[in-house]
Design brief:
By secondary structure, the chain is of the alpha/beta class. Helices cover 46% and strands 13% of the residues. Among the domains are: 88 residues, Four Helix Bundle (Hemerythrin (Met), subunit A); 145 residues, 3-Layer(aba) Sandwich (Rossmann fold), CATH 3.40.50. The N and C termini lie far apart (155 Å).
């Protein structure tokens, strides 16, 4: 084999050396430009369909010259006066009306209404002669005003004797006679005060009951206002857990006069809510706890039994001073049936007559008292917050007669 001349070998080494240096210089410049990853950097891999695939290095995208739009400077806004933040108005606690002024106002409402008793008296006194037909019409009017057959017979007998037999003919004297006889029927001697006596450390407890739609929750709210006006501290118990809006309605009544409400979720055990209300009343040392109950049909035995349970559970914490039955005065005889059954279950101590606007049902006062043997203690004559007042026999009769 022939030997390669040394000059050729030297030339090859020079070519290889130049090529190597060129590659090194190119690589460094490429890395500097970002075209190649840094020396020693690991390859980036992605999972594609379960396989590892090496990704190519990122390619630098040259910036394309674009027109730079300089936003126009907005015109300066005119200076505006600084407005001080207005604090939200704090709702003031309402001052309920006192009982005395309520009575006078409700009496005026009765007197201004075109009620049946006043009309019957006017027809009787304007009659040319008091014959049997005239008395029959008078008697019919009294019965339709829900006075009841028995009380109506007594009243007519007394009036016939004094107007015809005793010769009373003066209209003023006749009206005074009718007033006297009506007051006797309403019975002014009944104790109509609200029993709020209680032992030290315990509140007086008032349970309010009745059928649906008589206005129990509203009555509790109005009664609470009346007690606040008499400087009593009050707590509401929202034990009507069947009607969704009842607790919210009672809470709103309480907030207006600064009375707290103990409530629970819809469908909760009413007896438990009543118990908690009385317990909270003891903790706070309030004078009165007013407990609202769910409306129930008097014919539903299960619901009536549950009402008895509410009363028994309350009495584990404190005696129940009053059980007030709320009756709609316009229901007449049906209201009396309700009253009898409620009285058997929870020992009703007083009646609240709502919607007694004097239209034609004033006589229900006499009848319900005779049926139950308990007094009418409060009457409601309107939708106003203070349209509930203690019942007064003489003022009530004066209102019915338009005095």
């Amino acid at each position: 084999m022939e030997w390669i001349p040394w000059t050729v070998i030297i030339g090859l080494l020079l070519v290889v050396g130049v090529a190597y240096l060129s590659i090194v210089v190119y690589t460094r410049r490429a890395r500097a430009r970002g075209e190649l990853p840094p020396k020693g950097a690991p390859a980036v891999e992605e999972a594609v369909s379960g396989e590892l695939v090496e990704t190519a290095p990122p390619v630098e995208v040259e910036a394309v010259d674009a027109e730079v739009v300089t936003p126009q400077t907005a015109a300066p806004l005119e200076e505006t006066a600084l407005v001080e933040p207005v604090e939200p108005a704090v709702s003031e606690i309402e001052q309920p009306e006192k009982a005395a002024s309520r009575l006078a106002r409700l009496r005026r409402k009765l007197a201004s209404s075109n009620n049946a008793l006043a009309r019957a008296l006017a027809d009787l006194l304007s009659s040319g002669r008091l014959d049997d037909e005239t008395w029959d019409d008078f008697e019919t009017t009294l019965i339709t005003s829900d006075l009841g057959v028995g009380p109506t017979g007594e009243l007519v007998a007394a009036l016939r004797q004094q107007l015809r037999i005793d010769g009373v003919s003066d209209p003023v004297e006749a009206k005074a006679l009718l007033r006297s006889e009506l007051i006797k029927l309403v019975n002014p001697d009944l104790d109509r005060s609200l029993d709020l006596e209680h032992a030290d450390g315990q509140p007086a407890v008032v349970l309010v009951v009745g059928v649906n739609g008589t206005g129990k929750t509203t009555t509790v709210g109005k009664l609470g206002r009346m007690l606040v006006a008499e400087d009593k501290t009050v707590l509401f118990g929202a034990a009507d857990t069947f009607r969704a809006a009842a607790a919210e309605q009672l809470t709103t009544w309480g907030e207006r006069v600064g009375v707290e409400t103990v409530r629970s979720d819809e469908g909760a055990d009413p007896a438990s809510v009543a118990f908690n209300a009385v317990e909270e009343g003891i903790k706070q040392g309030v004078d009165v706890v007013l407990v609202d109950t769910a409306g129930r049909l008097h014919t539903k035995v299960g619901l009536m039994d549950e009402l008895g349970k509410v009363k028994r559970v309350i009495e584990k914490k404190a005696p129940v001073n009053e059980v007030l039955l709320v009756l709609d005065a316009t229901t007449g005889q049906n209201g009396l049936t309700q009253a009898r059954i409620f009285a058997e279950v929870v020992n009703v101590t007083g009646i609240v007559l709502t919607k007694l606007d004097g239209s034609a049902k004033g006589g229900i006062v006499v009848q319900v008292q005779r049926e139950l043997g308990v007094p009418v203690k409060f009457i409601g004559l309107g939708e106003g917050a203070d349209d509930l007042a203690p019942f007064d026999a003489q003022q009530f009769v004066d209102g019915l007669l338009g005095n």
